[in-house]
Amino acid sequence: MGPPDLVVVSNRGPLSLSTGADGQQIATRGGGGLVSSLGPVVAGSGATWVAAAGPDTPHEVVEAEGFRVRPVPLDGERFRQYYDVVANATLWFLHHDLFDLARRPHLDRRWRRAWDAFREVNDAFAEVIAAEAGPDATVIVHDYHLPLVGRALARQRPDLRTAHFNHTPFCDPDALAVLPEDVAAELLDGLAGFGACGFHSTRWSANFEACCSAVLGRTPATFVSPAAVDGEELARVAATPECEADLAELDALVGDRHLLVRVDRIELSKNLVRGFLAFDEMLHEHAQWRERVVFGAFVYPSRETLPDYLAYRSEVEAVVARVNRTWATPGWTPIVLDSSDRFTRSVAALRRSDVLLVNPVRDGLNLVAKEGAVLNERDGTLVLSPQAGVWDELSGAALSVNPFDVAGTAEVLNRALAMDRAERAVRAKALRTASEARTPAAWLDDHRAHARPAPPEPPTG
Ligand code: G6P
After folding, report:
1. How many distinct structural domains can be found in the chain?
2. Which of 16, 17, 18, 34 to mutate to test the pocket of ligand 1 (most atoms within 8 A of CB)?
3. Within this chain, do residues 369 and 447 fall inside the same structural domain, yes or no?
């Protein structure tokens, strides 16, 4: 392969390392929405995918299905400061409005050192991209881990057509004020060094523009392009013997009861705990659902190097145990919590669900809502938080739920479970049509169309 004319860049690459039953390390598909949406478009494209090689990812160049993975090797401590301290404990919390402001964040000297490491890692990515990309190539950099690559890359390779695509929400100027002024300015200027900045929803692009105008006094080019699901690939997975076996197992577990489903990382912004509390309240208020519905929660551990995520997982497990203690009967477990992280199991659950709960506090898009719409075989209903970017596309067909209103969520779950067949069918059709309206290839084409050479750097001082 010659130098690629397309380079995609993200912190997490398509392959993660995990330990098999025999103790051997095995490469598996990386988790989360970014890998799900990028994987299918990069396959067969001849692109190079530049990704961080942290402790749980391969350090060798890998030739995959028609593309190449070029790792950026990072030592353990630098990776921790960049990924744990700045990207996940600061920027993720900032963009998802997760800070408990009375206590966090505290941006002390140690945090400043982590910010320096964050800049170094962004610079290391820029160097690798500059060395890899062919003349005039298109470079699409993904997500909140790599905002500073724009400016660094523009200085080295002004010929490249570049874009940044953020998979998260973007905070508004009030929330941004948590960051020290120089950090906020560096962050936004890094992004402004790309040819254009893309988002899943106009809400996030408007916030970004408002931040840039307040802090930089200018607004970079932006575009909105919600990610799409690969219906063919999902159908292929659904047809595998593994998925059929998972579906049979689920059918045996649920029997003739209704199935309420969620599929998520164990992630604070996904709002798992309030979802279980709402289910508890629904069983309390609407006795007819006792023994008549199973809540299958297919949720898998994430970012467990951060204490907040470990604590959240404990909270999730505790609330599930409490709800089950309250309501379980000899033949019925109200909530089945499955954290085994098996993609075929999640696909089986989305095929079989009667109601899918997607109630994030805030979410860049939420691909699961679209995957559910495409895979479902029972005219399942979607209960959706307007705080998810995908609300823009699915609001007409989903039932709306305020993610903070536990009592309200209980009522919406009751309504969704009780919905008559005719209304379910109409809504399910509309969900599917909206979810299939765009393809992953069109999503990538959008990025390519918006990528352009970086604008001239504004004078300093
Ligand atoms: C979200 C982010 C992605 C990230 C994924 C999984 O979808 O937008 O950038 O890859 O979560 O999180 P992780 O920290 O495991 O990569």
Report:
1. 2
2. 34
3. no
